[in-house]
Design goal:
About 70% of the residues lie in helices and about 0% in strands. It is mainly alpha-helical. It is built from 16 helices and no strands.
Length: about 425
């Protein structure tokens, strides 16, 4: 009975409310353009609201079908391809995009670089939301969600997945504690704020350790796939490469998130801080690119770099457009001084990192399985719905909590 009610509610929103909002939004936009109507709200907001409600409705339907009929009813996964978009993007890329939190927290609290404090809370909030939604995605993806608690009781210390599960759980808790002062300030819970403030440094150090462990462990997971994962990505150095890429992409995500919030919330952009991070990122990206290329050549697989096939194309898109090009751009003072230029370079880094995780978890395995998997509409819509949920919570947190300092940095001209 409850399943039927939820399904009907989701279908009602998807088939009636969403089209109505789209029609109203487009109609008001056209009327406003012709000067026939004055709006007290943005038509773009209505269209965006319709899209978000549509995604959430499709996600609700996907969730109901997955929990009642099994994961095979909503995904294109199989015994041949057990890992798909929800693991490659939601989990592996989601964890990587939160890598900026432990880096910035370390810079501020461990190394005393207080200049980065204005963007620290928003970075921690982004990471916390990313890890929380990662857990949701993992809960939906595993075969028996009701058994997700078992690693807490049954410790398999020889399993890489056990380390990942424990580190993600503990690090999410650490992120929640690191962000809690913003909530305590809003609620004026002075004593709670003092308690967390006293343990902040140990929390940050613990967070760095946990994040390093699970970021590298996600790479270690794929060491069990020799002969299956394509040689352009399979290497004993996968744990190290995953950790380095989490740092570079995490810093890129800091720039992307700062730019988006500055544009969307009409706030100042910390261009000087982002430019400093970009200069360091350029060095890290250059080292990461050299590491990857030297590794491929040292393993005697250099010929694969120039083989005219899909895998070489994917590799060079990932490394060329997602690592080398942004490294060159971020090394240029003019790019670092431009908010649009820096945003574009950081976006390339983020997209390159996401492609890397998909190359390792999906595309790189096609040489063994064949291209037998492409995510279903339900998989894609659910992933987009998670992103929209995270964005919505982020905006609400910024509106009601002291995420950003009161005195904003003024944005520099592009």
């Amino acid at each position: 009975m409850l399943q039927d009610i939820l399904m009907l509610a989701a279908l009602f929103i998807l088939r009636i409310i969403v089209p109505l909002l789209l029609v109203v939004g487009v109609g008001y936009a056209a009327a406003r353009r012709m000067g026939e109507m004055k709006l007290s709200f943005s038509p773009g907001f209505l269209v965006a609201l319709a899209v978000v409600l549509g995604l959430w409705s499709m996600a609700a339907i996907t969730l109901i079908l997955r929990l009642t009929r099994g994961i095979g009813a909503v995904t294109n996964l199989s015994d041949t391809t057990p890992f798909g978009l929800w693991i490659g993007f939601d989990v592996m890329a989601g964890a990587m995009l939160g890598g900026g939190a432990f880096v910035l927290a370390g810079l501020v609290y461990v190394f005393g670089l207080q200049r980065y404090r204005p963007i620290l809370r928003s970075t921690i909030l982004t990471a916390f939301l990313g890890y929380s939604l990662l857990i949701v995605a993992l809960l939906i993806d595993i075969g028996r969600p009701y058994n997700i608690w078992r690693p807490l009781i049954h410790w398999n210390v020889h399993s890489v997945l056990f380390e990942v599960a424990m580190c993600v759980m503990c690090y999410t808790t650490v992120l929640a504690l690191e962000f809690s002062p913003a909530l305590f300030e809003r609620l004026r819970w002075r004593k709670a704020w003092k308690v967390v403030h006293k343990i902040t440094l140990p929390l940050v150090i613990l967070g760095i350790v946990l994040s390093t462990m699970h970021q590298s462990s996600l790479g270690s997971l794929w060491l069990i796939t020799p002969g299956k994962l394509h040689d352009l990505w399979y290497t004993p150095w996968l744990p190290v490469l995953f950790w380095i890429s989490a740092i570079t992409v995490g810093l890129g995500m800091v720039t992307v998130e700062s730019n988006l919030t500055a544009r969307g919330l009409k706030r100042g952009l910390e261009q000087d801080l982002l430019a400093r991070l970009a200069r360091a990122s350029a060095v890290l990206l250059a080292g990461y690119a050299i590491f990857k290329l030297v590794d491929v050549i040292a393993r005697g697989k250099g010929a694969l770099l120039v083989t005219p096939d899909l895998y070489a194309v994917l590799f060079w898109i990932e490394v060329g457009l997602g690592v080398i090009l942004p490294a060159i751009l971020m090394a240029q003072p003019k790019v670092r001084a431009s908010k649009n230029g820096l945003f574009a370079a950081a976006s390339l880094v983020v997209m390159g990192g996401i492609l890397n995780r998909l190359n390792v978890s999906v595309f790189g395995l096609w040489q063994y399985t064949g291209p037998v998997y492409f995510p279903s509409v339900a998989e894609i819509s659910f992933s987009l719905a998670l992103l929209s949920v995270g964005a919505t919570i982020f905006v609400l947190a910024v509106k009601f909590l002291p995420v950003f300092p009161k005195e904003e940095h003024t944005a520099t001209a592009a």
